[in-house]
């Protein structure tokens, strides 16, 4: 498989060429909390604007705290012509302790009900690792992590500072 971008002998190295080679990143520097909502909405920090006709290997880490009665419901949005196949490595919503079963089933960009389990009255920070492959067609736009509570609860669910998305362009 060819590397992205293709660089030819004698080619002029420009700032746009170097920029296209960078790994894109979105990092949460402060936590965001949501209570009494089950409607996934955009995370204010975990979003990236992407050009049309591009493909990426996506890595991420979500740090979150949720009451086991509320949990964390996640999904991603992509531009109209985009596709995103992903898997999250984390504990299911049936979790009540900090160790146990892990879920790894595949999801797509339209999946908005993927549930991760919270423990101990939203006081324990849990982790979930994400991997995926993102392709944008003829429409540029935002790639965004969305989330809410799985079950509406007055105790807030939060996505914590230190959560991140990394996108490595491959085409």
Number of domains: 1
- Work out the helix count: 1
- Class in CATH? Mainly Beta
Assembly type of the chains comes to single chain
Strand content: 35-45%
CATH-derived architecture: Sandwich
What structural class should be given to the helix and strand makeup?
A: mainly beta
CATH structural fold name: Jelly Rolls
Assign an overall shape. Answer: elongated
Q: Please tell me how large the radius of gyration is.
A: 17 Å
Mean pLDDT: 88
How would a crystallographer describe the biggest sheet?
A: 8 strands, antiparallel
Order of helices and strands: HEEEEEEEEEEEE
Number of strands: 12
- DSSP helix fraction: under 10%
Distance between the termini: 10 Å
Which consecutive residue ranges, at least 5 long each, have pLDDT under 50? none
Description of the molecule:
The protein is mainly β and 171 residues long. The protein has a single domain (23-169), classed as Jelly Rolls, CATH 2.60.120. It is built from one helix and twelve strands, in the order H-E-E-E-E-E-E-E-E-E-E-E-E. The termini are close together.
List keywords for this structure.
4% helix, eight-stranded antiparallel sheet, mainly beta, 1 helix, 171 residues, 12 strands, Jelly Rolls
Outline:
The protein is mainly β and 171 residues long. It is built from one helix and twelve strands; from the N terminus they run αββββββββββββ.
Task: Provide the fold topology.
Elements: H1 15-21, E1 24-27, E2 32-34, E3 41-50, E4 54-65, E5 72-77, E6 83-89, E7 106-108, E8 114-116, E9 126-136, E10 141-148, E11 157-159, E12 164-169
Antiparallel strand pairs: 1-12, 2-11, 3-10, 4-9, 4-11, 4-12, 5-8, 5-10, 6-7, 6-9
